[in-house]
Amino acid sequence: MNRLREHIEEIISLTDEEFDYIKTFFTFKNVRKNQFLVHEGDEVKFEFLTLDGIYKVFYIDGNGKEHILQFAKKDWWMTDYIGFFKEKNATMFVECLQDGAVACLTLEGREKLASEFHKMEYFFRAKLTNGYIALQQRIILLLSSTPQQRYEEFSKLYPDLISQIPKKYVAEYLGVSRETLSRLYSNNK
């Protein structure tokens, strides 16, 4: 509960009464390694705030190849956003890579909080804006950089993740083979 408040108050300030009301919109869940929060084909009921643990958001293409769109660690938001905002079934998966906990928020709850509290509307807008910027940066990096540059940027942005996530997932995220990642890793030691 305190982690949720600290996270929100990184952007806006809240009174105790406001936070007491806001927290009623969230449910909290402990998550085990290899547990799915979202599974392809399921209804996407929640957006998740990572309180603890590490997660991956991915989809599997028609050839059975896994493509990782996002890793999420403490204080990051995640879900299948197409399914969540368009109220459609999931086309992606959200899987826990390391035991953790999440705060769960429904779309209805998010919309109600945003309409009742302009501060929360600002909070959600700031989070969405930051996520959109990060997504564009990731796409640009994937389109216009070498594997070496992608690896260096990932290592710089997420030094803690590089040691906590299995190398095969890092390779998938960077769009390189496991062998290429091993070479890149060796070159940067």
TrEMBL record:
Residues 29-112 form the Cyclic nucleotide-binding domain. Pfam families: cNMP_binding. Gene3D superfamilies: Jelly Rolls. InterPro entries: cNMP-bd_dom (IPR000595), cNMP-bd_dom_sf (IPR018490), RmlC-like_jellyroll (IPR014710). This is Fumarate/nitrate reduction transcriptional regulator.
